[in-house]
Amino acid sequence: MRFFLNILFGGLLFLQGFGQDIISNPTDLPTANIFSPTADYSLINDFRGLEFDVENSKVSFNFVHDKTSGTISGLDFKINFNPKDPDNATFKGTALIKTLDTDNFIRDGHLMWEKFFYKKKYPKIAFASTHVVHFGTDTYKVIGNLTIKGKTKEVIITFSLDAQRLLGKTTIFTSDYGIHIHEEREKNKLDIKFYFPILL
What we know:
Blueprint: H1 2-22, E1 58-63, E2 68-72, E3 76-80, E4 90-96, H2 105-111, E5 124-134, E6 139-148, E7 151-161, E8 165-173, E9 189-197
Antiparallel strand pairs: 1-2, 1-9, 3-4, 4-5, 5-6, 6-7, 7-8, 8-9
């Protein structure tokens, strides 16, 4: 019996020493949970979004039937966009009605009236994207909701991208938003263009 006890005791001492050789200090073992929600996943998706020059961005329009062009400013927008990751892109912004400029101050004044844009009650135009789709080389479709004079309609803005700018265009009918410049819908066609220079 003593012989077997000596063998057992000796084996335990051997295993203890062997374990100490493998892990000399148990506190050196990593304790962090690699699936922790607080872990840094930045290397998984290291895409960097483009930054845009808000001050020099422009929105212009052309009232097709009357061959009247103009601009709107007072832009306040946030674009979260990376061409490598369009699924996670967002476009959101507003413009001030009072800044409508058609190079005719009498006409611009009329556009502020209740019959048209009703600046007093609806001082801003707003847009918020719902999703963005890559649509060919350097072309993206931004689908979202445009709100003018309290009415919201879905629109699609087509953007093209180059090394210096993001250019967009869309077409709406002002009568869809309660702004009847003319009685016939087709005569209320408005082409809109967006110019967003990239900060290099």
